[in-house]
Amino acid sequence: MSARDSTGAMVTLRAPARSALVLDDGAAEALRAVSDTIELHERAAPGTPELLVVGSDRRGEDAASVAANTPVFVYSPRNFLELADAFMALGALTGEESRGIKLAAQMTSAVKHVRSIIGRLPSASFPRVFIQEKESPLAICGASSFLHALVSEAGGRIIADRDEVARRAPDVIILAQGTGAQSSESDTPAGRSGKVYTLDLSAGVSPGPRSATLLVKVARLLHPDLIP
User: Fold this and answer.
1) Torsions phi, psi of 38, nearest 5?
2) Fewer Cβ in 10 A, N or C end of the chain?
3) Together in a domain, 48 and 15
């Protein structure tokens, strides 16, 4: 059985994977959602796993973690379409193709619902959004990041660079749990109007089954009159 990973590379297994070394939180959630039987490991364990799943920034760990002949699946979706493809691919590689398709369909349905509402608005009217996470905002909100795509789907225009906050005047500020607003952010449209919110952004940083729920939450914050 074969399936393409997020880079487009074909990953082939002789039989459905029953064990996997998974180095990405979102991929681990996806595998648990598509298979009740697969044994997941976060670090190398006795024996060789049948599949290694890594994020785009964790590839260097595979050689030290497992035998060189273990198939490697790179899980790094940059948008909801690629996330749906990843769900279906993981379903195929674990012998749970129908569950992978179902998971992808459920997420796609939620995304289409948000699009049907947000799509009525001109993009120029989307609020400017600054997201503060523990890491560099550019690292998690760059133009090719999943979180950037999520905010765009939710009807927002993201400000990725903290140095641009004062100049571009965000209408909404979203803080990751465990972080606090900076003093400079209080003197922005978002700070003055009380539109500074705290959210669990883990499903945006590490996309997985919960990402559709996060999309709806963000869309509700940005457009409360349209998405109650």
Assistant:
1) -65, 140
2) C
3) yes
